[in-house]
Amino acid sequence: MKYAVRLVRLMTYEQNSSKKIVITSNKRFPNSDWKSGYTKEEAQDKAEELKWKLETDYFLKNLQSQNSELKSELGKAQNKISHLEEQVNELQTKVEQFQDKVSPEEKNIRNILLIGRTGKGKSTLANVLSNTQEFAKGKYGISETRSVQAKEFQANNIKY
To answer: Considering its fold, how many domains does the chain have in total?
Structure first.
């Protein structure tokens, strides 16, 4: 059995952000080069072909959009990396300039910086390292240290 094609409408659609299908174009045929009739199987094949093309076009459009977004993000990341590399180079130059100003005696001194929460043993550790009792220790996690404290000491022929 043949089915006569009297009218064909080609509709292009997109899915918006709320996942609702929106028709973006609606074209009316017949066209002189269209076949006048299809079998049921041929009509189904044409419909499947059209559906596949529309879905492929939609998928491709989404991929292109994602690709341009990723390229934009990559460009931003590359700019940030470039900026950070410039900052690292500037800091390295400053460190080198500072090291040139440090005397040989000062270069042999090591610094120890103790950082931590109140009552966690920083003063106790400083007393053990310096082999003194110069750093006040609080009881029960109550802070005794009110300002920065420093002490020079020597261990294994290294100054700290």
So the answer is: 2
The most confident of the ranges 3-17, 21-35, 64-78, 97-111 is: 64-78
Q: Which residues have a Cβ under 8 Å from the Cβ of 29 and sit 6 or more positions away?
A: 7, 8, 9, 10
- Determine, yes or no, domain membership for 110: yes
Model confidence over 71-82: pLDDT tens digits? Answer: 999 999 999 999
With H, G, I as helix, E, B as strand and everything else as coil, classify residue 3. Answer: strand
User: How does DSSP classify residue 39?
Assistant: -
- Out of 66, 93, 117, a domain closes at 66
Q: Mind listing the pLDDT tens digit for each residue in 117-128? A: 877 888 888 888
Assess if residue 77 is contained within a domain: no
* Structural domain range at position 148: 104-160
90 domain residue, yes or no: no
Does a structural domain hold residue 88?
no
Rounded to two decimals, what is the model's pTM?
A: 0.37
Write out the DSSP string of 61-118. HHHHHHHHHHHHHHHHHHHHHHHHHHHHHHHHHHHHHHHHHS-HHHHTB--------T
**8-state DSSP, 159:** E
The C-alpha atoms of residue 13 and residue 25 are separated, in whole angstroms, by 7
